[in-house]
Amino acid sequence: MSKTLYDKIWDDHLVHEDNDGTALLYVDRHLVHEVTSPQAFEGLRIQGRKVRKPKLTLAVPDHNVPTTDRSKGISDKQSKIQVDTLRNNCKEFGINLFDVNDKRQGIVHIIGPEQGFTQPGTVIVCGDSHTATHGAFGSLAFGIGTSEVEHVLATQTLIQKKSKNFRVNVNGSLPAGVTSKDVILKIIGTIGTAGGTGYVIEFAGEVIRNLSVEQRMTICNMTIEAGARAGLIAPDDKTIEYFKDRPMSPKGENWTKAVAHWKKLFSDSDAKFDKEVNIDAKDIEPLVTWGTSPQDVSPITGEVPDPEKEKDEDRRTAMYRSLEYMGLKPKMKISDIKVDKIFIGSCTNGRIEDLRLAAKLLKGKKIASDVSAMVVPGSGLVKKQAEEEGIDKVFKNAGFEWREPGCSMCLGMNEDQLSSKERCASTSNRNFEGRQGRGGRTHLVSPGMAVAAAIKGYLADVREIN
Amino acid sequence: MEKFIKLKSIPAHIPLMNIDTDMIIPKQFLKTIKRTGLGKSLFYEMRYDESGKLIEKFILNNDPYSKSKILLAGKNFGCGSSREHAPWALLDFGIRCVISPSFADIFYNNCFNNGILPIIIDDKSIQELSEYSKRKEEIEVDLNEQEILYGNKKLTFDIEPAKKKRLLEGLDNIGLSLKKIPNIEKFENSMNKTKPWI
């Protein structure tokens, strides 16, 4: 029988299945961070349970850590307790930890692939919704709650119901100035924040094939913003090349075997999808969000929408609420929206290719005088690489702050937050109310668009920066 | 985990779609290493102003809704972050049942690990139940019968049998899965042969 990529990975990890379809799925890779794990370890301790396969879990503090000078430790007391707790738990249960001052420390979804811990065809989970990122390598990766983290630690499995198959084909070729961030924003804008609920989405088509693996990660990263369980992209030669010689990649004979397995990871040509959507790349422009849901997208050349034109009453109510929160008026030009802060980073856009693209546009220019801007590399190794290439100097010379790696202002658990009514062009993934700080106003954009906004001081068209 | 069998309460209605988990429990409260104590921070930014004072017009700040055990909400409830702090905060506040036209996937699963029943019913039924919220009249949820009883009417809801059983019996998932260790071992042995690089 023909199968989708999701079917293949699912079947390959089925430990047990009840009559009603409730399945026990084997977990090959488990990532852990400081915020969603303390209660899980505590649960194990209370029940006297052990971690079944400590080697299949990798831990790193990322959500809470300061992005300024770390030599003096973490000043926020509660954050320090969480990071210390993670360290103690890893020691007690024998789990590999990249601690705060390890040069490999970084955002959990960036270090997994970087180390080769993430691998095609695996099932990867983490107590973080953006685990979907790893789907870019053809692994079934999704976020779980803390009780499930505890379940994985104790059993190396997870209780799951199978999702339905959804394929999004992005056809054609991307116009100038349009990146994978715009592609995923376009997809979310098209299918809505609940459009993927109950599904695993496979991204396919010429555009996806032509993206680099890092660009693909941006797409899968935001699959959760469309409500899907996971996002998937079939591995190809680029994927295999990416994993060659990574520290935790298979070696020698195992590499050959692994590659042979990875090459079988694709949806059969006659595989059935429960839902399919086609998007033509020529219809995608550089996008920004105007509201407080990732589906609230507009081309940079567009206007803030008028809720009065919305027929659905709930949606209209939500639009009014968003516009009030965002301090915007219907029909105003998007390019008339003035920004205060710029944030480049996060598991969505904090990789070396993102920083290279931003630096290329920024070289020799200055940020607007009334804007403050920061770059937070996704990991210590991304930071090091960027510094070797002189990218840090481009940012610093333009007026950006160059920070230490972590989740930072994507969710503002550390000091990096927006003040009330401050407006930010952000390369992160969520524009929810209060996400980047109480009352803070987030506009989601690509790294290039963040640079354009930094230079102009307004949301601006990356195609006008040369 | 506490069993969920029947629940009677005046429901509180928050008529908003896409209530995300950042809204349910903002980031600053995720720094805890405990599961309890989050109730006072539930819906923090809707409940308290910037000086920390209660916002009177917010429904959960008013009696009898401050004691509601049932929450009615718009579609796609619990979207966004996977934080289990969201169901922990609801539970700590006293809410054990959320009724919405649809739920985000991770939140939905998290509920069942905390003895919270998420019920999916259509918009029209939510509107009908919201009248009981307005009139401050109780409704009753009966999980065993899969029914919501209100006035002299009732409506039925769907739930997966395995999930229903877990709530009714308050079962510990990990304990149940540990009984399948022989299956897990068999799987691992076979995987060691076919995929030695894992």
Describe it for me?
The complex is a heterodimer of chains A (466) and B (198). Chain A has 466 residues and is α/β, with parallel strands linked by helices. Chain A contains 16 helices and 19 strands. In chain A, the strands form five sheets. Chain A has a five-stranded parallel β-sheet with strand order 5-4-3-6-7, sandwiched between helices. Chain B is 33% helix and 16% strand. Chain B is built from eight helices and eight strands. Chain B starts with 5 loop residues before the first strand and ends with a helix. The interface between A and B is large, with 77 and 56 residues.
Q: Can you lay out the helices and strands and say which pair or pack?
A:
The complex is a heterodimer of chains A (466) and B (198).
Chain A: H1 5-12, E1 14-17, E2 23-26, E3 29-32, H2 38-47, E4 57-59, H3 77-93, E5 96-97, H4 108-115, E6 123-126, E7 140-143, H5 146-155, E8 157-160, E9 164-171, H6 180-191, E10 199-204, H7 206-210, H8 213-221, E11 230-232, H9 237-243, H10 252-262, E12 275-280, E13 287-289, E14 297-299, H11 313-326, E15 341-345, H12 346-349, H13 352-362, E16 372-376, H14 380-388, H15 391-398, E17 400-402, E18 423-426, E19 441-444, H16 447-456
Helix pairs in contact in A: 2-5, 6-8, 13-15, 13-16
Chain B: E1 6-9, E2 12-14, H1 21-24, H2 44-47, E3 70-73, H3 85-93, E4 97-100, H4 105-112, E5 117-120, H5 123-134, E6 139-142, E7 147-150, E8 153-156, H6 161-169, H7 173-178, H8 181-194
Parallel strand pairs in B: 2-3, 3-4, 4-5
Antiparallel strand pairs in B: 1-6, 6-7, 7-8
Order of helices and strands of chain B: EEHHEHEHEHEEEHHH
Q: In what order do the strands lie side by side in the largest sheet of chain A? A: 5-4-3-6-7
Beta-strand level of the residues of chain A, as a percent range?
15-25%
Fraction of residues in β-strands of chain B:
15-25%
- Give me the number of helical elements of chain A: 16
How many strands, what sense, and barrel or not for the largest sheet of chain A?
Answer: 5 strands, parallel
Give me the Rg of chain A, rounded: 21 Å
How would the global form of chain B be characterised?
globular
Distinct helical segment count of chain B: 8
